[in-house]
Write a structure and sequence with these properties.
The structure is a homodimer of 347-residue chains. With 347 residues, the first copy, chain A, is an alpha+beta fold. Chain A has a domain of 173 residues: HIT family, subunit A. Helices cover 25% and strands 22% of the residues of chain A. The first copy, chain A, is built from 7 helices and 15 strands. In chain A, the strands form 2 sheets. Chain A has a 10-stranded antiparallel sheet with strand order 3-4-7-9-8-13-14-12-11-10, sandwiched between helices. In chain A, α1 crosses α4. In chain A, 47% of the residues are buried.
């Protein structure tokens, strides 16, 4: 059974997933990847994964061939799906049972599938699958927040090379989301406007840090980016929830996402990256036990964060929480935007 | 000129060190390390670094041979030493000039020097050098906090293989230190006791997570460790300041630190690691502009954090601030403590 433990000084929760039972020798350099024929995510190997919880299929039977996108429970889950959330403590130390969901979205039967070059029709199926799983997992009142993320490349933490995303449902709202909700509520209280909408408008007006925009989406190089060539994709219409895009907005979002991913390939030689979908926490209405963070959900403005993994975290970052970014976000935007749109001042 | 930029939503500061002028092509795989004869930190190559700001020498001239430990400014500093701290803003965006110090402590003339096997006499010189630089930099009233850290191995962010530590002096107190000070002050207000002293006492009584102890220092496997085999070295006597160790305490601290570093070598095959010295922020007394965090300094209990770099940060961690640790801290302590002291229950 996993545990969620609270650091008594930093007031920070950590998942202790000791079920994985790893010993020191498990952290030696990793063995070479298995050949594609042994890849558990490739078409024809459906029996090598736990039974699917969802798939985009054209009438074929579950756990057989004939799927476009397939969702299975993670074989080594960080959290346990079965059980109640119970709280415990000894002296200064607090913990709770590590209840949650941990699913894998196998994005294509093809081992060579890529987000940056996929047909829009297939990307719509992937995004639709994210939406279906978010909607389904939100029905479970134990889960307060759900995150969808994608690790591309071994240096970004992908343990299997077959393209996939992951979904984790948590029994607590994470600190980063709490701070985003707090800032959005505070701004709305003063101005009756969304802080993200205001930021997007200010950045489009400037527009040194705009990487790409169309009618539905904008890609920004964040003003205080922690990493070189970090980017964020925002919908231009205010919406707290990733699952509420219209079909046109979905196409606009995919165009924006694929633009910046293609620029990563050409400008940064296909770097490893992490992609995170930041959507509002669950609006659960538990009788007698309202969820404070859920009530702030409508203040949120969903977005997708992209971090290419080009630099290494070191002692300074771990010890202070401060980051050193060696590339000015304006310069990063200059390199990433379409060549014909690059202002003459960018070297 | 570097800048400190504030993220308008996350209220988080980032150092934009664009002086380094890095282009996308600078992030391609790194070239092989230079041969030792070209190492700028090796004895005989003193002219290849900026002039030293401090050295442990036996009467020899600065920037010549004959040193045991040598401190030089970082050739590619993240922060600028010259100038005033000025604050700026446009709409939602805030920044200040990136003023600070960035020094390199070359720990030995020998390229093959190691912390885990160094003679105690030499380690005393290294620790004394940390203390001298902390004391000297604290005289500069622009600096509110100073961190000493050590990146061991390329995967831990060390860009040169010659053993060295770094010192960064900041014009702001970092968030992690603020939270530690806040928790310490809150605990003291309720109990008139130090939260770290209480934690150390509770952990020694338990003692599942004690890796090592002597009369002066204790090494703990933190209850909510974010990383497998993470460790923290605490002085057993309450003290807010790393520079205030007695000679006996220095020897006890070195014994404790070297114990756990030797166990990393034997149990984890000499992994890359980050070492961070967490000591209280500066007690500056600026007329008319008191420093709130400085007034909390005495509540702090200095310590050293150690993170072996065995796992990779991925989308879940970046997107939530939550960490997944696959090794229970009690199991980690079992593997790291001296073999003869391992309780029978540890497999």
């Amino acid at each position: 059974m996993s545990e969620l433990r609270r650091d008594p000084v930093l007031d920070r929760w950590v998942i202790i997933a000791a079920d994985r039972g790893r010993r020191p020798s498990d952290f030696k350099p990793e063995p070479p990847a298995p050949p594609p024929s042994a890849c558990p995510f490739c078409v024809g190997n459906e029996a090598k994964t736990p039974p699917e919880v969802y798939a985009v299929r054209d009438g074929t039977l579950p756990n057989t061939r004939g799927w476009d996108v397939r969702v299975v429970p993670n074989k080594f889950p960080a959290l346990t799906i079965e059980g109640d959330i119970t709280h415990h403590g000894i002296g200064l130390l607090d913990w709770m049972t590590g209840i949650g969901a941990h699913e894998v979205v196998i994005e294509s039967p093809e081992h060579s599938f890529r987000f940056d070059t996929a047909p829009v029709e297939h990307m719509l199926k992937v995004i639709g699958t994210f939406g279906q799983r978010l909607t389904d997992l939100r029905r479970d009142q134990r889960f307060r927040h759900i995150i969808v993320f994608r690790n591309w490349g071994a240096d970004a933490g992908a343990s299997l090379s077959h393209p996939h995303s992951q979904i984790i449902a948590l029994s607590v709202v994470p600190d980063i989301m709490k701070q985003k909700l707090r800032a959005a509520r505070e701004h709305f209280r003063h101005k009756e406007r969304c802080i993200f909408c205001d930021l997007i408008e200010q950045e489009i007006a400037l527009p040194d840090r705009v990487i790409f925009k169309n009618d539905h989406a904008v890609v920004l190089s964040p003003f205080a980016a922690r990493f070189p060539f970090e980017a964020a994709v925002f919908p231009r219409r205010h919406s707290h929830d990733f699952t509420l895009m219209t079909p046109d907005e979905q196409v606009g979002f995919i165009e924006a996402l694929q633009f910046v991913l293609q620029r990563y390939v050409t400008e940064l030689s296909d770097p490893p990256y992490n992609l995170m979908v930041q959507t509002a926490p669950n609006l659960v209405a538990r009788p007698g036990r309202p969820d404070y963070w859920g009530t702030l959900a409508f203040d949120f403005h969903w977005h997708v964060e992209l971090i290419p993994r080009l630099t290494k975290m070191a002692g300074f970052e771990w010890g202070t929480g401060f980051f050193i970014n060696p590339v000015a976000p304006e310069d990063a935007a200059g390199f990433l935007r379409a060549p014909t749109e690059a202002p003459a001042t960018v070297h």
